[in-house]
Amino acid sequence: MPKSKITSNLVTNKLRGVRISLFFMGSDEFARVILERLQSDSLFEILGVVVPPDAPVGRRAVLTPCPVKQFGLNVGLSIFEDPESLKGREMDFLVVASYGRILKRPILELPRYVALNVHPSLLPLYRGASPIQSALLNGEVVSGVTIMQMISRMDAGPIYAFSEVAIRTDHNAENLRTEMARCGAELLAQTIPGIFEGSIESKNQNENQATYCTKMDRLSGEIDWNHDSAIEVERKWKAYFAWPGIYTTFKGKRLKLLSGHSGGGDENGQAGKVMRLSEGSIGIQTRKGILILKEVQMEGKSPISVQEFVRGQPDFIGSILT
Question: Which pLDDT does position 266 carry in this prediction?
Fold first, then answer.
């Protein structure tokens, strides 16, 4: 079973009839799940949410509100787009999850109690913006969620609570993030009352154990067949599932590798060579092991099975991918 820890005794019944006020900052679906959990609990009074400005989405660049803003509008919460708007406002807590902006010290000092962040890793491991992807890239079997005090240094504040989440073989960045959001939402809902009544204390992070996230950009998903093993490519599949995806080059065009898995095979074959395997599947030789393909997408085309792709591109078999 996943382990969790709140650094206190159990929260008591002293909070009966009390409402804890807070402002919430966030943007994506991870943050929306957490906000929805707090909004559903009568113990918490959500004074408002701070979100980034609407962003262009799709080929037509339609300005679209983030999931947190959309939820806030649906339930009638006050919406702000500038953290400075909170100055002069009273609150017990400030809660931040996937907000994506650095907050200045005066903002962090606004709440009567503390500014809290919900971070999807077991701090001090994987500080930074992509802890879930980094854990998948490194083949971790356990990660988790941490509730920490926000300070001026990134993800370095004292820890109030954490909960472990086992990483299964079917996890990718999308479904693991959803699971961590639910875990973090429940952990936060338990932690805030304890801080409020003084039964939960924080513990400083061990700086000697701190690690940092892998930086991600649009090129992170490019496969280097001479460098990456089949297992490493499979990990990239999982880590970059939603964005940016993984890809290689065929006939001078980008070929997205949408699904598949690592397999055994000759470690001495030519890296990047596409082959038809004995059981009829299509594989690519990596630095170590063979990657079994299931679904691909050629640049400018729709996703199709690799078998269908080979029927239209028979010279794919035997080609050397770069």
Answer: 64
How far apart, in whole angstroms, are the C-alpha atoms of residue 239 and residue 243? 8
Point out the residues of the chain with pLDDT beneath 50.
1-2, 7-11
Q: Is the sign of the CA dihedral 61, 67, 69, 71 positive or negative? A: positive
Instruction: Find the helix or strand (DSSP H, E) in which 296 lies.
Output: strand 290-298
Position 280 scores a pLDDT of: 87
Which of the four CATH numbers 1.10.10.10, 1.10.10.1800, 3.30.420.40, 3.10.25.10 does domain 230-316 have? 3.10.25.10
* Percentages of the chain per state (helix, strand, coil), in multiples of 5: 25, 30, 45
Coil, helix or strand at residue 106: helix
pLDDT at 135: 98
Residues 6+ apart with CB under 8 A from 271: 225, 226, 285, 286, 287
C-alpha 295: how far from its chain's center? 24
Rounded CA gap, 125 and 210, in Å? Answer: 5
CA distances, 314 to each of 62, 87, 261, 295, 309 (Å): 40, 64, 22, 16, 8
Domain spanning 4-209, CATH architecture = 3-Layer(aba) Sandwich (3.40)
pLDDT of 5 reads 59
Do 46 and 77 meet the contact criterion of CB atoms below 8 Å apart? yes
Q: Residues 209-222: pLDDT tens digits?
A: 999 998 899 999 99
Alpha-carbon distance 13 to 164, whole Å? 26
Q: How crowded is residue 38: how many other Cβ atoms within 10 Å of its Cβ?
A: 20
Per-residue model confidence (pLDDT) at position 202: 98
Query: Over the stretch 295-320, which tens digit does the pLDDT of each residue have?
Result: 999 999 999 999 999 999 999 999 99
